[in-house]
């Protein structure tokens, strides 16, 4: 047992059911937006639709008003919408989606005091085969969690499988941003990386039944380096090549991990 694992509190059955309810709202928002993402639609229109569904389901956005980790302006959107070379934290606005784009949508809600968080990357019409492979590989990376993340396993073993899949497909795993624990708050212990390195060894932890984790593989077509844009939030690839982002909120079980946001 690592030192960090001792600070992680698994959730009881009642808490998990409340998180499942929040996760259903997240899944419904993503489902509605998937059907609305098409050429000509603005990212701001997607944000407005997300708010409508959240309110209808008795939930609120986790993202709106979140303080910037380095003291910048609070996040101004209800969801994150990142297009093509944008990796995460894209601010919804006037940008119009075009044929051949890939659009990453990150949705977080709080319902009855508990959180759910998930993301998907959608292709708009026909995209380049290599871009299609990028999206498919990132989605497959998330499926590794459902199969491999079970009680008694070190998280690094799961992260290593994710990294191997991504690198084997010829893509780069992002190391500047990672997943996180989740529960009553969006960001809880532990830090949940999608790779294995010297900087992650000290934070490794043993998975335990009832742990709830927001796992989010972030994959670049080119180099792994990313940077923040001038808007203070949107993160983009340094080489301008496309990026994909998938995420689910999972609860760890004895025989695998259950996604609460599907």
Describe the model:
The chain has 262 residues and is an alpha+beta fold. It has one domain (4-259): Alpha-Beta Complex (Creatine Amidinohydrolase), CATH 3.90.230. It is built from 5 helices and 15 strands. The protein has helices at 13-36, 43-56, 129-148, 155-168, 198-201, and strands at residues 60-61, 80-83, 86-88, 102-111, 114-123, 172-173, 179-181, 188-192, 212-215, 218-220, 226-228, 235-237, 243-245, 248-253, 256-259. The relative contact order is 0.19.
Number of helices: 5
Query: Unreliable stretches, pLDDT < 50, 5 or more residues?
Result: 1-6
CATH architecture annotation name:
Alpha-Beta Complex
Q: What value does the Rg take, in angstroms? A: 17 Å
Distance between the termini: 31 Å
Estimate what percentage of residues fall within beta strands.
15-25%
Spatial shape: globular
Major sheet details: 5 strands, antiparallel
CATH topology: Creatine Amidinohydrolase
The main sheet orders its strands as 8-7-9-14-15
- Mean pLDDT figure: 95
SS-derived structural category? alpha+beta
Number of beta strands: 15
Roughly what percent helix? 25-40%
CATH class designation: Alpha Beta
The figure for the number of domains is: 1
Order of helices and strands: HHEEEEEHHEEEHEEEEEEE
CATH superfamily: Creatinase/methionine aminopeptidase superfamily
Quaternary structure: single chain
């Amino acid at each position: 047992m690592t030192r960090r694992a001792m600070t992680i509190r698994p959730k009881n059955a009642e808490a998990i059911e409340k998180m499942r309810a929040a996760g259903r709202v997240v899944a419904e928002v993503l489902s509605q937006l998937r059907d609305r993402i098409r050429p000509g639609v603005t990212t701001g229109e997607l944000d407005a639709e997300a708010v409508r569904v959240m309110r209808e389901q008795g939930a609120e956005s986790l993202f709106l008003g979140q303080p910037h980790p380095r003291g910048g302006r609070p996040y101004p959107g209800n969801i994150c919408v990142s297009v093509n070379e944008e990796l995460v934290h894209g601010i919804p606005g006037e940008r119009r989606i075009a044929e051949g784009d890939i659009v990453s949508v990150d949705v977080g809600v709080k319902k009855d005091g508990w959180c759910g968080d998930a993301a998907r990357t959608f292709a708009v019409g026909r995209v380049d085969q290599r871009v299609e492979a990028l999206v498919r590989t990132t989605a497959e990376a998330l499926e590794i969690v459902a199969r491999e993340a079970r009680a008694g396993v070190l998280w690094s073993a799961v992260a290593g499988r994710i990294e191997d899949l991504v690198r084997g497909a010829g893509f780069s795993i992002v190391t500047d941003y990672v997943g996180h624990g989740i529960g009553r708050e969006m960001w809880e212990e532990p830090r949940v990386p999608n790779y294995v390195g010297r900087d992650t060894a000290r934070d490794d932890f043993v998975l335990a039944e009832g742990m709830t984790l927001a796992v989010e593989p972030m994959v670049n077509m080119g180099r792994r380096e990313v940077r923040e844009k001038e808007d203070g939030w949107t993160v983009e690839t340094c080489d301008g090549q496309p990026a994909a982002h998938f995420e689910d909120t999972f609860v760890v079980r004895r025989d695998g991990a259950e996604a609460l946001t599907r």
